[in-house]
Each structure stands twice: as structure tokens, then as C-alpha cells.
Amino acid sequence: MYDQSLYKIVDDHIPVNTIKRLNKAKRWDYGYNKEHDVVVISKTGKIGDIYEIQNLKIALPPTNSAHKFKSDKWEVTPYPKELDRVKSIFDWKVLPNEFKNEYIDYIESEFKKREEGFWFYNKGKATYITGTHYMYLQWSKIDVGNPDFRESNRLFYIFWEACKADKRAYGMCYLKNRRSGFSFMASGETVNQATISSDARFGILSKSGPDAKKMFTDKVVPISVNYPFFFKPIQDGMDRPKTELAYRVPASKLTRRSIISTDKPEELDGLDTTIDWKNTGDNSYDGEKLRLLVHDESGKWDKPNNILNNWRVTKTCLRLGSRIIGKCMMGSTSNALDKGGNEFKKLYESSDVTKRNRNGQTNSGLYSLFIPMEWNYEGFIDSHGLPVFETPKQDVFDPQGELIDVGVLSHWQNEAEGLKSDQDALNEFYRQFPRTEEHAFRDETKNSIFNLTKIYEQIDYNEETVDLSVGSFQWVNGVKDTKVVFTPNQKGRFKINWVPPKDIQNRVIVKNGVYHPGNEHMGAFGCDSYDISGTVDGRGSKGALHGLTKFSMEDAPANEFFLEYIARPQTAEMFFEDVLMACIFYGMPILAENNKPRLLYYFKRRGYRGFSMNRPDKVWNKLSVTEREIGGMPNSSEDIKQAHAAAIEMYINDHVGESQEKFGSMPFNDTLNDWAKFDINRRTKHDASISSGLAIMACNRHLYTPKRDMEIKKINLSIAKYKNKGFNSKLIER
User: Which domain CATH number covers 218?
Assistant: First the structure.
């Protein structure tokens, strides 16, 4: 049974009595509510359900007299034929008041829906759509006519409304699947905002100038042209411009009072609002002030253009000092990492709403949103706009009346299975129709030194089957150097897949006052440490620790990574203590890099030098003074680098991916993804690879043990030789 995780309704975030009290007084203001940590998108002063989408809590308006269409689903309301003849506000002004009175309620209700959103029954359930979404469904003409209602788009627009409402946000960074309709939705929002804004600029960028122009001419302009007169300002210039759409005279909100107004058309104030597009480049829109910037296909900017550089420039176009005055709607699938995907990936990851600076903003200023492909895959959305995840047990039809006889998950899996023999084709399929963020950023196989086919096979398998424990290690009763216990905790820094039986936990041997691991025969740890607690830019590399078993007669899995730790606590000492506790709990030694020696000195001072392995490629008398003192292994020599990479390669070939219809048991996808993009010439960026590789080398130390040099000498045994001819033997002279 498919268990969706795209959104959830949070029932206990704000006490019910608090909601009722503030609803009664209409005290819920549109925008971010710091007291309750929720973004309010209701414009009525009241709130209802609280949605959590991508870790952002969003308060919707309360259910209010939902409209019920005859079909029990969304329908476009026909435009009155009499009003269709009215082409502009000037035409309206000269019409008789009797005619105006007949339609003014209809027009006012459309303005209200645009402002507050709209409730309707969909499959018997009261469903809310934002005003922007209503304008898209009711009044936007796309290539197929009116857009279909889709539940995925409803959630997209709710999230987008939260981005607009939240004064901390510069907009959204949307990671999407192919043909999700983003370009049309962004075009619709551009027209929607431009037609109610004065003295404002709206910009469009895409992966190339021609693509931006095409979006402008084929999507933005037609939507604007087809708006009803009461929403559409008077354009300046051509009806279908190629470079700039300019609104000069506004379409004032019509009321009963305005019906009898005697204002002359020339007395109306102009909007002075424009929509245009620009060629792709790092400095596009530099120096301009924008109300809305649409970034289409931002994951496909190829060199020399760089989406990161452009965003650093255009971000300043959306603010005045510290005040955000404009928003960015950014959306894209991702190219391969070396074709623009890597920059977009960095931008997406820096838009995580759970990671904010002291100003309450994400590192990029944007809010990231990912909607899995199963929510928005054409051909697998029913007539109510709901995704068909599982193969239906009863007849289900799409909006065009076609039977949907298989679920989208099965269909997707069948396509993926058919591409397994061509890993690059499979990765391209994943990038275009991703079910996870990892799928969206799959790289090409030629860019990795390791077997990407096996790595990605394992990642896919893990996503369906692996359930890791997250938690922390602690000293019993807080007393150091006693016993260590593992405590499950979702905020913990450790991920583990195996816990040893209690009888072999904390197995430590004391020799001459020094602690040694008691389970050395079972496995070992590898560690990529760091020495400095803080960095100037706050972005220092993370500490990494990996635990790996080897074959033994104990009750333990063989050749399996059982622990992953990739984190940077507030101080280096906290990291050192975390590593020490893990080693003690499992009773296993550790092989760490000694070019960052503070961890190893920490072990020695605490009496745990016996846990620190010596480098396996040298005998004792060949070790340096420091190596004899603290152990560890340098990472500087080319031989070590090659041996380290070869160790990972060996493990992947033997224990990762599918082999004889069985899968490997490497359960940590963060490490697998790090292996996938490992660059031997830039090893410092790959903490997980360094750490895991050292763990593999530690468990296979016998492979690196140097052979002792043996000098072969001829030995003269001085044995006498005789001739035995005749009656007397004669000595042969040497």
C-alpha cells in the first residue's frame, strides 16, 4: 500500500482553543506567524486546516460554503455570452446601468475568488484552491484549452502562496518531473500578478534566450489575451508582442459604486507594468527591480552560464535593503551534474526550510519543493485530478475518458526495469520522472570512477526496503569510561543498521592501563576527522565515521556497513566523544587519518590508544615517531590514495548492487551517493567516501601488510669431493 509523504494535515500544532479564540476575533494575519511558527495564507482573518508540505507549516482558510458542481469535481464556469462582447473597461463604461446591474455580482464574486481562493467539492470532499490556482483553472488558456484540475497542482499553489505570504522567503525552488505543467502555471501567475500590480516589472529567464522568448510568446501573451475584460488592463503596443507586454491603463475593481462613476477614461491612472524576457546569462536583470522573476528550466543552464551566479545577482533585484519586495518562481528538472545539474542541486539543497540563518532565511532565500512523479504523471490522473498510485480494483478513468487499468507505481517500475541494461538511459529516465530527490540528481555513469550501475541498483533497493535507526550514543548515567548505550532519537547524528548482542557490547580489554577493542576480529571503523571547531564561513567539511563488519564466528553480519555518521557538531570535542563512544559500544578499532591528529591525540589522552590502528602498509619499525605515538594513516601519498580508491572499488564489486538475483547489504544511501560522485583528485569534498574507504582498508589490513625483504646468499659448505676410480680414492682439489 502506497503511503504518501508529500503532505500531511497537522492537528496538534496549535491548540484548538487558540484557533477558535483568534478566529472569532479575525486575528490571523496573512503572512508568517512567528508565535505559532506557521505561514497563514488565509485572507479572511480565520484559519482552518494546517498543512505541512516539505517541512513548511501552512494555515489554510476555514471551510466556507464549498461549491458543489453537478459532476462532484472541478468544472470551468461558462463565461456569460453577453459579457464576452465587452472587450475593455471603456466598452463597459458606456453600457447602460441596467446591463451593469445584471452582471456586477458575478464580476465581484470573481474578484473575491481571485483574492481569497475557492472551495468546491471534489469526490465528496470539500477542497480548497488558492486564488492564483483559481485564476489558472478558470481563466488561463493553455495549449489544450483550459487546464485540468490536479491535486499535485493544488499543493504546489498552496506552497507557492505560502512563499508569497512569508516575508522571510524570496520564493520557491521547485524540483519537478517532466511535463508537470510548471511553465504554464508560472506564465499564469505572471499574468495574474501583473494585471493587479502598478509600476512593476516581471521577468522571465530560461535555459536559453530562445526558450525564454518562446515561453513569453506562446504562454504568457495568450493567457493575457484571453483574460476577461474586468481582469485585463489595456495593453500598450501590439496585441501579441514579441519582447515586452506593457499594461498602461488598469482594469479597476468593479463595484456598484463604480458603475455610476463619471470618470473619463483618460483620467484613470496608468499601471506602468511590464512583462519581458531576457537572454540567459549570469548578469541577466542585473540592476533592475522585479516584482516577480520566473526561472524556467533552471536545472539545465549549461556552461558558461551558471544558475548559482545568476541567482546571486537577481536575488538583489527582489529586495530593497532587508525588505523583500519581489518573489522568484523557479522550477526545473535536472540535467546531468556536469551539464548544469550540480549548480541547481546546490541551489535546491540550500533552500531547505529546516536550515535557516539567524535572520530566519534559508541560505539561498528560496524554499525548496519536490513533488514525486507519481503525483503528476500524465495518463495516471483520474477525472477528479487525483493520482492513481496503485492498480485500481474498479474502473477508473482519466479526464479524457480513457481507462486507467494500472497504477502509476507499477508502470514506472516496469519502465525502469526495461532500462536496467542501459544505465545512462535509466538515469535519464530517473531525472525526468523522479520518485525521490536522489533520482532527480542522478548522474551519468561515465562521470564516476566506480561502478555506478551497482551503486544505483543498491540505492533503489534501499529506498524500498531499508529502515535505519537514528539516534545517539551516551555513557550510562553520564559517567565517562564506563559503558555506552544507544538511544533512538530522530535528531541523533548516528544512523545504524545493526546492534551487537548485549553480551558482546562494550567489550573492552585493558592491557597495561591502556584500553583495547575486544571485538577486533568482528570489524572496524574508518574515520575522516576534522580539527577546528568553527570555520570563517561556517561551511567546514563534516566529520564522518563508518563501521564495517568482516567475517567472524560471532552473531554478526559479514562484510556489511552497520553505522554511518556524517555531521559537524558545534565543537570538535563533541565529534571526538561521539566517535569514541561508538568504538567502545561496538568494541572495534578505528583507522583514522593522522594528518588531522586531534582525534587520535584525544583517544590517547583518554587511555584508548589501543583502539587506534596503525597504518597497515608499514611494519612497526618503519613508522614515524608520531605514527607510533597515536596511530592513524596519512592521506597524502599517491599510493595511499590509489589503495583507498581500490578498496572502495573492490567492496562495490563484491557487496553492492544486484548479483544472482540478490542485493548487497550496504544500507546507507548518503554514502552510496558520495561514492557515485567521488573525485579522486578532490578527495576533501567526499567525507563519507574517505571514512568508508578507511573502514574497508581496516577490515582488510592483511592485504596491505608489507612483505619482509629476504637477502639470499650462497653458503659454502666446504664438502670434500673424491675420485673413486681404481683401488684408492683421490681428493679433488677445490
Answer: 3.40.50.300
Examine residue 572 and state whether it is found in any structural domain, yes or no.
Answer: yes
Q: What's this model's pTM, rounded to 2 decimal places?
A: 0.81
Q: Is 174 within a domain?
A: yes
Are 295 and 383 in a shared domain?
no
Write phi, then psi, for 403 (nearest 5 degrees): -70, 135
Residue 28 lies in a domain: no
Claim to verify: residue 498 and residue 436 sit in the same structural domain: no
What's the CATH code of the domain at 652? 3.30.420.240
Rounded CA-CA distance 25/11 in Å is 21
CA distance 68 to 314: 43
C-alpha 373: how far from its chain's center? 14
Note the pLDDT tens digit of each residue in 311-366: 999 999 999 988 999 999 999 999 888 888 889 999 999 999 999 999 999 999 99
390: Cβ–Cβ under 8 A, 6 or more apart, which residues? 1, 2, 407, 409, 410
Last residue of a domain, one of 316, 344, 371: 371
Which cell is 265 given? Answer: 477614461
* CB neighbour class for 704 (10 Å; exposed up to 12, middle 13-18, buried from 19): middle
Could you tell me if residue 635 is inside a domain?
A: yes
Mean pLDDT, consecutive 10-residue segments, the chain of 734 residues?
A: 90 94 96 97 96 97 92 95 88 89 93 96 97 97 90 97 97 92 95 91 94 95 93 78 80 48 49 89 88 94 87 92 94 88 93 94 97 94 96 92 94 90 86 91 78 87 88 95 94 94 94 94 94 55 92 88 94 94 97 90 95 90 90 84 92 90 90 89 85 94 74 64 72 66
State whether 422 and 341 are in the same domain: no
Query: Whose CA is closest to 288, among 298, 296, 277, 297?
Result: 277
Residue 538 falls in which region: left (phi positive, over 0), alpha (psi -120 to 50) or beta: left
**C-alpha cell, 143:** 495549449
- Total structural domains within the chain: 3
Radius of gyration of the chain from Cα atoms?
34
In what helix (H) or strand (E) does residue 307 lie, and over which residues does it extend? helix 307-314
Q: Which three cell numbers stand for residue 700?
A: 582488510
Q: Report the chain's terminal Cα–Cα distance, integer Å.
A: 93
Residues spanned by the domain of 212:
63-252+260-371
